From TrEMBL:
Residues 1-125 form the MGS-like domain. This is Methylglyoxal synthase. One of its GO terms (molecular function) is methylglyoxal synthase activity. It comes from Rhizobium paranaense. The lineage of its organism: Bacteria, Pseudomonadati, Pseudomonadota, Alphaproteobacteria, Hyphomicrobiales. Substrate binds at residues 11, 15, 37-40, 58-59, 91. Belongs to the methylglyoxal synthase family. Keywords: Lyase. It catalyses: dihydroxyacetone phosphate = methylglyoxal + phosphate. Catalyzes the formation of methylglyoxal from dihydroxyacetone phosphate. The keyword Lyase applies. The keyword Lyase applies. InterPro entries: Methylgl_synth, Methylglyoxal_synth_AS, MGS-like_dom, MGS-like_dom_sf. Its EC number is 4.2.3.3.
Length: 125
């Protein structure tokens, strides 16, 4: 994959926050190839129709694992994953595997908006 690639993922209760993050940072995100899990990618496209987003499967259907595989093959440069710490998710093992891979392969990772804002600004300069 040519250019910088960012993965965007958000738990159900954080999808509005991810769409708003994308809207606020639309100019910066236009410099990245964007991959996202299914529903999150749809929400980002609704908020920012001008962005190009490659949508994977939804997280519970294997999207987290698809993005994890991309991390392992060196295709992801930045992971932004808005995790909802208050709502249990049935595919929690997939979420942990994905974040473990990001740590293992030393991929910058933001798990909340404050960190995502700082990373997107830092990595675009």
């Amino acid at each position: 994959m040519a250019g910088k690639c960012i993965a965007l993922i958000a738990h159900d209760q954080k999808k509005d926050a991810m769409a708003e993050f994308a809207r606020r940072n639309q100019d910066a995100l236009s410099n990245w190839h964007i991959v996202a899990t299914g529903t999150t990618g749809g929400r980002v496209l609704d908020a920012c129709p001008g962005l190009t987003v490659t949508r994977m499967k939804s997280g519970p259907l294997g999207g987290d694992q698809q993005i994890g595989a991309m991390i392992a093959t060196g295709d992801i440069d930045l992971l932004v994953f808005f995790i909802d710490p208050l709502t249990p998710v049935p595919h929690d093992v997939d979420v942990k595997a994905l974040t473990r891979l990001a740590v293992l392969y030393d991929i910058p990772m933001a798990l909340n908006e404050a960190t995502a804002e700082r990373l997107i600004k830092t990595l675009n300069h």
